[in-house]
Amino acid sequence: MIELKNITAFQGDKKVFENFNVHIGHGEKVAILGPNGAGKSTFLKLITREIYPVVKDDSHIKLFDLERVTIWDLRKQIGLISQDLQEDYTPYTTAIEVILSGFFGAIGQHGHLTPTPEQIEQAEQMLDYVGMGTYRDTHFQRLSTGQKRRLLIGRSLIHKPQALIFDEPSNGLDIKASALLLNIMRDYAKPENSLLLTTHHIGEIIPEIQRVILIKNGKVIADGAKNEVLTSEVLSDLYDTPVKLDKHNDYFHIWLD
Ligand SMILES: Nc1ncnc2c1ncn2[C@@H]1O[C@H](COP(=O)(O)OP(=O)(O)OP(=O)(O)O)[C@@H](O)[C@H]1O
Asked: Which parts of the sequence belong to the ABC transporter domain (predicted)?
């Protein structure tokens, strides 16, 4: 479904990746871990076409089995959560407009994007699902960080995408909202749906995520089955910090050693 081959990519003047290779198949659920600055968001931004790789003969990015995919096709296929997206919303967008914008792959609701009555009804149900029903017409600027994040979660799901791309989705969420996020991811993680999650919270790797990719300094240092990749030694090395890892009910927990 997603193939990055021999990718070289920059963020500003910083070369983040050189000959970077990753392949993710249909229906895979994958967690991407790595220290700050490792390249996790850059990887996701290559997929969402927020940044483009250096053009080279032997490199390509294939998305949804297409060499060429328009940004609009892409937005129909994926549901996205990222900090950048949250920052792109204008202050006067209302909560329901944030959700509705997901139908159009747009940031906010503009005059030329007219939702149908069915879409409005679905958006209202989604507001309830993410616990934001009482904020239907509240402006984005009047919401807390976690409330904004709940709206983005709703926005990412409303058009029933075949892949969710969640870049640190739990930023700013309280315990109840984090639990809601885990439930939402588990609900979504059906065999036909794909999920790519970056997180610094190991406990967010839901049981349905079976593959973990570790990135450090722009390189994949491990990629494989969760139970093989995630060990105290490997994570201590990844974060240059001694940590202990434990597993309980198919969830991992980490603490400082
Ligand atoms: N807009 C930018 N201009 C220049 N360099 C950037 C820019 N954005 C990111 N970088 C650099 O690119 C590298 C990779 O950043 P990236 O955001 O992909 O890391 P990350 O693994 O997502 O980190 P974090 O866990 O902190 O979110 C870092 O060295 C960072 O400093």
From this structure: 2-242
